Amino acid sequence: MEPITSVSNPKIKQWQKLQTKKGRHEQQAFLIEGMHLLEEALLAQRTPRAVIVRDGTDLPDEWLTMLRQKKVPCYVVPPPVFRRLSTTQHPQGVAAVMPMVPPPQPLETLLEKRELTGLLVDGVQDPGNLGAMVRTAEAFGADFLLLGEGTVDLYNDKVVRASMGSLFRVPVYQGPLEDWLEPMKRSGVTVVAAEVQAPERLDRYTFPPKVAFLVGNEARGVSSRLSEAADVRLVIPMTGAAESLNVSVATAVLLYERIRQNMC
Fold it and tell me: What are the start and end residues of each CATH 3.40.1280.10 domain in the chain?
């Protein structure tokens, strides 16, 4: 491993810029931190641009072999330098620079599947929520996520951590949701908006083969213009006094009901 000893090193300065959205998109890369995320990246056949290890931290031999085979540069840094790159309270001593990789096929192509489950995200701003939604989407077999305007950056460090590696496996697209509603409908996709005041209950609705769930911002929910454009509006029935569910929890309920119906 090549040593880097100074926080003034150009590579350290370059990697520090990945802690901002602007820096990430200029470099088309993002930072991951911790053994688990690096393992998930390698298992998903993602090749890091660089791996940074804190002095005294050991990587498994098989990882080192894999990284050498892929010709990934590895660097060892002292703890004070590693802390400049870390965004966690208790760093595990390993980080990696990952390239932003687009989904394997255009969304237009994906929409032509005979059966489809998608998630349309309208302005979700909490990174922990979005990361959990990506993880939940993978757990329940969703085919894609589409992140609309006003949604937190997909490569925010908290989003990446909360996704627990699902970010490397689930196709995630980004773009104005309004631009995609008509193409989805032409492809036979039913757009289902989840709303607190919706006229129809989730547990009484039978899903068609192709569905895209529309979920909204933590405070205001789905925007009115998107709600009006949806094919169906559903409410998750609740018996307690709480007015609504956290958006990531609501997403889990919607996707679970979808998969439950498919399994019956």
Answer: 107-263
Tokens representing residue 171 in the block: 């196709």
Pairing, β 190-194 against β 232-235 = parallel
Strands 74-77 and 50-54: parallel
- CA torsion, ordered 63, 68, 70, 74, to nearest 10 deg: 80
* pTM given for the model: 0.94
The tokens for 168 are: 């490397």
- The CATH homologous superfamily for domain 2-99 is Ribosomal protein L30/S12 (3.30.1330.30)
The CATH number that domain 107-263 falls under is 3.40.1280.10
Name the segment(s) of the chain with CATH classification 3.30.1330.30.
2-99
Contact 112, 207 (CB under 8 A): no
Query: Long-range pairs for 226-231 at CB < 8 Å and ≥24 separation?
Result: 226/120, 226/122, 226/177, 226/178, 226/181, 226/193, 227/193, 227/195, 229/178, 229/181, 229/191, 230/181, 230/191, 230/192, 230/193, 231/185, 231/190, 231/191, 231/192
Average pLDDT for runs of 10 along the chain of length 264? 94 97 98 97 96 95 94 97 93 96 96 97 97 98 97 97 97 97 96 94 95 94 95 94 91 96 84
